Structure formats: C-alpha cells, structure tokens
Amino acid sequence: MSSSWIRKLLQYALMLTPASVLSVLVVLVAAGVAVTKILREPSQFADAPQVIQTLTRAVYWHTRKHWHTIPDCVQFDTELLYRPRPGECVFENAEFRTVMHFDERGARLTPDPAQADAGDPARPRLVIVGDSHAMGWGVDDHETFASMLASEHGHPTVNFAVSSYGTPRELLRLRRDFALAPDDIVIIQYCDNDFAESRQFATRSAIGPYRPEELQHLFDYRPARASALPIAGVLLRLTWKELTRPLGGSPDRVHDGPDPTTAFLRVLGAFPELRSHRVIVVAINGPGVATHLSVEPLAAAGIPLILPDLSKADFFDIDDHMRPAGHRRVAAALDAAIRGQAPSQ
Description:
The protein has 345 residues and is an alpha/beta fold.
C-alpha cells in the first residue's frame, strides 16, 4: 500500500471518531517514549525497529543544539553574522561531546604535519574552508579531516571552516582574515545547502551586512527537550504536517537565476586572488546524498571535484555529520588528489 493511501486512511480515521484521535495520541506518546530512550542512549539505535529509527532521526532535528547558537563558541561579525570565538568551547548532542579549540584567527586547531619521508619534497600548505562538515561537527580537534591530512598524510593544514557558512562567507572571511602564501592550495568543502547563499551572492554580489540582534536571535534558539511528552509533541506536529500535506505533494519550486554549479563558479569568480592558487573542491552531504554540482563545468574551469566514497557507517547513526572514520576517508581522498593519484570524480 502506498504512503499516500496510508495518509488518506489516517485522515478519514481522524474525521470518523474521537476514539481514533485518542488512539493516535496514545501511539505518539508510546513512540515518544521509545525515541526519548534512544536520544538518551544512542547505542540502542542500531537495535531499534526501522520505524523508530526513522522517527528518531526526524525528531532529532528538533532536539539538537547548533554550534553557531552557543555564545561561548561564536562572536558577532557585521560581514559574516558570526565567526569562531578564539579559545575553547564545548559542543555536545545526543551522540557526542566535543571540546573545540580555535586560535586567534578563528581557525580550528590542527596538529603539526607528520614527519615527511627522507627525500620527500616540502609540501604546500592546505587552507581548508567549508561548513560544519569541514569544521568538524561532532569530532575532536585531532579527528577532523584537516587534522588527519596533517597527522596521517604529512600536509601542513589550516582549518578555516565554519559551521553553516556558505561558499561566499567562507571566501569573504578567507580574504579578510587570512594571508594566502603563493603556493597554498585552497580546498573548498561544498555542501548542497550552500546553494541558497551562493545564489544570493551571485545575484547581489553581496552578503550582509548583519545586525547584532540577528545573532541574538540565534542565541535565543531552544531545542525541544529529550523527554517523552515534548518528543510526543514534536511527533504530533510532524504527523499533522504530514496528514495535511496534499496527496500529490507540492511541485518542485522553479528558481529564477543560476543553477548550483553556475552560482558556485560565479562566487569563485568574485575572488580573482584564487586564480593564482590551486583550488580543489570536495563535496560532502549527508549519508547517501549525491551533490548537485556538475563535474564538467568545474573541470573546464580547472577545478577538480572530489567525491569521497562515504558509506552510511562513516556518519553518526542519528546525526548527519561524519564520524572520525568518515573524516579519515575524506583525508585519504584529498591526499590522493593532491598527489595526483586519483582523478576527480
């Protein structure tokens, strides 16, 4: 039976009897109890029924903390809305607790590169920009792919990535706050949710300016508590949204303006200083999600697109960010590309 017919039957049931409504509420509370147990003990996720796993992932988006909403982690920036606060900050969610460290430039700490083999030529520095995937959401300082490029592959690295930045803010901050050396290699980690910011920048040639109250609004964010009744409330809202959604679904919105790859290339074109540097793009989305960037236009611009071979096991069970194993795979893919041992995908 298709999901549309199931939804239609539920709609009829809710219209027929108050008892049906009560039954739905009981089921939601029971599901809330099960989901709460997993959010408190994520090790139970793998053994949970598929439906509970699906509900847990859906609810988690409403319960998780966001790094950029923590005052100890970020500070206001007129051009960028926020930037990392130098020093130490604690970031935790259901599956992790990390203590993150940022230097005076706001770069996440990376180790010194591993000792090069005798006779191995000096390697250029890797300057990494990106969003939460590159910054290292949910992993410790030494577990980011930037750190692993240094500790396991011997590349000097700087991790300038910032959670929730799109490509325009990444490059604006790089231009403003960091002096590129002539032989630096710039690695841009791209996620498909960068498109909205890239499209805005490609259309307006600007981002911001921002006001302090906009950051305060982020600080005011309060996720739902991981308790049975609040979780049941989230499930009720999600169920109602699903039940009231038109059966045919809504047609895909047609955007005016550039497609994702064109928007991305226009952003890069606004930073002519990159033309004198080797630029590599690595696309990272959630588990099993391909990128909407196109290989051919990037290759025509002389920019390789690296698509690491990431499996579901490389990501947290509930969160959609990489475990250390995923970062290790990304580091290996980038090292191979830098050394010319792997073609772009």
